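Figure 2 data, in text form.
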Amino acid sequence: MKYVITGVDGKLGGRVAENMIKHTVPGDLIFTCPFPERIPADTRAYWSRLGITLRTANYDNPEQLLAAFTGGQRLFMVSGVLIGEKRVKQHKNVIDAAIKARLDHITYTSFLGATDPAYAHVYVTPDHTETEIYLRESGINYNVMRNNLYLENYLTTSVMLALLSGNKWYTTAGEGKATYIAKDDSALVGTSLLLGKGEDRQAYNITGRESVSQRDLCQLISQISGISIEYCPVGKDAFFEYLDSIHIPRNTDEDFSLSPVPWCGNDMVTNEASIAEGLMDVASDDFHIITGQQALTAKDLVEKYSYIWKENVRHWKDIL
């Protein structure tokens, strides 16, 4: 069986790639990303020694995608980083290329609530909704993993932004709770589905086992770090003004050169507000059913990311 993993240069695809090295024959792996030359040379050399194939696959280039996928059988498809029609087009390019390359199966990373109209106003959701429809109508076998918000982001970038902002943790999440999923756990699900542990044409809600508020997370960080961080729930307009003030663009097409994080304001404001609305407080056994494990909690991970405050991290590219 030949497995193709996209986005191996990213936080999720990279985790899936490393998992697959442990769980299958490395010579059966095809790793792809838009710019393989940007992957550290020692990592590329390590993969080469294992017999892993590394190919260029830009979601905007259908011919390149077809060449990258050729010879594969099962595909792990990380969603694109742009938001809006450009991303939908990219996703369609990937699905079309997979079909042309005669792949048997796609595992797609979607978002919680993608087929629920109650989530339609969340900035990132419509892209996933349209992609899931296209995938379902394409005829290829697939699994969809609908991830909740990533737990690591609130132990890394949220803490980093608070430290950049006079130890104030701003958010539109209010007192809402969420069953955040760790990226490590999301990668375990992706690996399991890629290896064939899911039911064909089935979507899964990938959530954590702990329902916590951002106030809870803020207090946990304050306790562990010894830094008094003030939790500051604000309205949407105030949150936009705050994000604007630290050079976070409102849309993904804008200039990110001064932004400390890789996400746009519309994404952050609506994601956080959806927590206040109760949309992210979803209980699901799908993670345990697929992996046979218990999901990680904030307390499990907090020490791992203590370098954020110990090393005074100021930019997302310095987050491991």
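Caption note: The radius of gyration is 19 Å.
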